[in-house]
Design brief:
single chain, alpha/beta, Rossmann fold, 2 domains, six-stranded mixed sheet, 11 helices, binds adenosine-5'-diphosphate, binds magnesium ion
Length: 299
């Protein structure tokens, strides 16, 4: 649960409104038959930011994206561009780009034809197809989509998602299973899109990705938001086990809490030239998550 106190904290902010936020969610719940999958989720996303929904598999991330993009019913409030997600109209859909698992790419069509088809549906000028493919670095537009590698398919899906220059982009685990080089390329593309003013709502269970890219993250566990904030600020707030590990020249390892009381000891070790190496273990979003839920994001 976004603990009710932090929910109230957020809700008490005067800009917690559907008018001030491009995405507005308040006490949103989803039940599949008898299974509660989202439980009173409340969160907002400001125009132009990258927002990351972090959580392990089964947390409810895809369900939330499907609700926001008008594909599932729900209880509570959810709005995009101040329009309720239950009944999004064409005027909002034209501003939304999405990349979900069921990516809707036709294997037997070329990359060009896949995008041209989508362009026609959205009334987009065909010239944009080449631009979008160029943006994601797919020069081989005539290749059959079915022949692309996983990373290239991901980039094709991204090209399709941005083809109509949306204001909001929903990305469900955009880099999951990709190699580090392709992952970095996608991160660079997302950073570029953000510079152009696009709002990005992404899900991930990769907290490094979230830390690097996101202005705000919400940590989702079993359908409940357990924390929300800026990645750096969250890490600082859960700074408890910030340790300094010192390897001494004689091979001994000393672990100390990173706090002023230990400064003298560390200074002494330096002064007597006993230190081989020194490392501080910064808190990470993964550690914050484990602290809050008792489990990691990959579990
Ligand atoms: N159509 C559905 N019917 C019943 N249960 C579902 C359905 N879709 C998802 N779920 C369940 O909802 C939970 C959250 O799923 P999901 O949103 O896909 O999580 P995530 O994307 O975080 O991995 C899971 O337990 C999943 O089994
Ligand atoms: Mg999912």
């Amino acid at each position: 649960m976004m603990s009710s106190s932090s929910y109230q904290e957020i809700a008490a902010k005067k800009d917690y409104t559907a008018e001030n936020n491009i995405i507005y969610i308040e006490k949103l719940s989803k039940v599949f038959r008898t299974k509660a999958v989202l439980n009173e989720v409340s969160v907002t996303v400001k125009e132009g930011e990258i927002f990351g929904l972090l959580g392990p598999s089964g947390a409810g991330k895809t369900t939330l994206i499907k609700i926001l993009t008008g594909q599932l019913s729900y209880d509570g409030e959810a709005k995009i561009m101040n329009q309720t997600c239950r009944m999004l109209g064409r005027d909002v859909y034209d501003h939304i780009g999405m990349q979900l698992d069921n990516c809707g790419i036709y294997d037997r069509l070329s990359c060009n034809d896949n995008l041209r088809l989508f362009a026609r549906i959205h009334g987009v000028d065909r010239k944009k197809v080449a631009q979008a493919l160029d943006f994601v670095g797919l020069s081989r537009g005539t290749d059959c989509a079915g022949k692309l590698s996983r990373g290239m398919t991901q980039r094709l899906v991204l090209a399709r998602a941005i083809l109509h220059s949306p204001r909001i982009l929903f990305l469900d685990e955009p880099t999951s299973g990709l190699d580090p080089v392709t992952t970095r390329k996608i991160h660079d593309l997302l950073t570029d899109l953000k510079k152009q003013g696009v709002t990005i709502f992404l899900t991930t269970h990769n907290m490094e990705e979230a830390h690097k890219l996101c202005d705000h993250v919400a940590l989702l566990n079993n359908g409940v938001i357990v924390e929300y904030g800026e990645p750096e600020e969250l890490c600082r707030r859960y700074n408890r086990d910030n340790q300094i590990t010192i390897l001494l020249k004689d091979g001994q390892v000393q672990s100390l809490k990173n706090e002023p009381d230990n400064a003298d000891l560390i200074a002494q070790l330096f002064a007597s030239d006993q230190i081989e190496s020194i490392h501080s273990s910064e808190p990470t979003l993964e550690k914050v998550f484990i602290h809050l839920t008792g489990r990691g994001l990959e579990d």
